[in-house]
Amino acid sequence: QVQLQESGPGLVKPSETLTLTCSLSGGSIGLYYWSWIRQSPGKGLEWIGFTFEKAGTNYNPSLKSRVTISADRSKNQFSLRLTSVTAADTAVYFCAKYNGVFNAFDIWGQGTMVTVSS
Amino acid sequence: QSALTQPASVSGSPGQSITISCTGTSRDIGGYNYVSWYQQHPDKAPRLLIYDVSSRPSGVSSRFSGSKSGNTASLTISGLQPDDEAVYHCCAYTSATTARLFGGGTTLTVL
């Protein structure tokens, strides 16, 4: 069974770059779509984007200019890079597996809180 | 692109049934059967309940069912139990940007 675990700094300064990593166990990074989703305090979920080795990347248009999602097959992990962060990027960030057969996010990491503050 | 529209809250008593709606447009819910629903308990990750409008993954109770009419998808929970108290999120594919849209989430209170 695939399991996901996010890691990264809990505090990022405004204008800097947020980088998070999702480590995968119980599966291969090359087989599925891998996604990042965030949830601002008290708000709904927001899809950030996903990467799939065979098809490239797809990003939320509202974040596309600042986002990079990439996968590292050798480490069996994928990462999120979000540049020029502001307080509006403060959120819990989840990594998730997107099941292309179900057309749904079927496995989620536990989430990691990131606060943007000086 | 706008998020999908869900009611902020719904409530019901144990044993009753409730329905949560999720409204979009013809470019997302109305145009494709790629609608999914998630349950999220406080401080937990979301859990997939329904995919492709009305299919349940293995391990999800048959008390959860999904449907769609026009641009609106619905999640029905029958035989409400205290543990059903959670936030429910809908999600859909949109052809406008090939993105994935989420609703704002609906808080279910079991009275």
Describe the 3D structure.
The complex is a heterodimer of chains A (118) and B (111). Chain A has 118 residues and is mostly beta strands. Chain A is 0% helix and 55% strand. In chain B, the strands form two sheets. In chain B, strands 1, 3, 4, 7, 8 and 9 form a six-stranded mixed β-sheet that branches. Chain B is mostly beta strands. In chain B, a hairpin with a 4-residue loop joins strand 7 (86-94) and strand 8. At the A-B interface, strand 5 and strand 10 of A face strand 7 and strand 8 of B.
Please provide a brief summary of the model.
The complex is a heterodimer of chains A (118) and B (111). Chain A has 118 residues and is mainly β. In chain A, 0% of the residues lie in helices and 55% in strands.
Task: List the SSEs and their pairings.
The complex is a heterodimer of chains A (118) and B (111).
Chain A: E1 3-7, E2 11-12, E3 18-25, E4 33-39, E5 45-52, E6 56-59, E7 67-72, E8 77-82, E9 91-99, E10 104-108, E11 112-116
Parallel strand pairs in A: 2-11
Antiparallel strand pairs in A: 1-3, 3-8, 4-5, 4-9, 5-6, 7-8, 9-10, 9-11
Chain B: E1 9-12, E2 18-23, E3 35-40, E4 47-50, E5 64-69, E6 72-77, E7 86-94, E8 99-102, E9 106-110
Question: What labels would you give this structure?
Answer:
A: 118 residues; mainly beta; four-stranded antiparallel beta sheet; B: 111 residues; six-stranded mixed beta sheet; three-stranded antiparallel beta sheet; 45% strand
Task: Provide mean pLDDT of chain A, rounded.
Answer: 94
Shape of chain A: globular
Share in β-strands of chain B: over 45%
Class by SSE composition of chain A: mainly beta
State the shape of chain B: globular
**H and E string of chain B:** EEEEEEEEE
C-alpha Rg of chain A (nearest Å)? 13 Å
SS summary, helix count of chain A: 0
* CA-CA gap between termini of chain A: 40 Å
Which chains make the largest contact?
A-B, 22 and 26 residues
Number of strands of chain A: 11
For the report, how would you describe the main beta sheet of chain A? Answer: 7 strands, mixed
Kindly name the structural category of chain B.
mainly beta
Q: What kind of sheet is the major sheet of chain B?
A: 6 strands, mixed
Helix % of chain A is under 10%
Spatial extent as radius of gyration of chain B? 13 Å
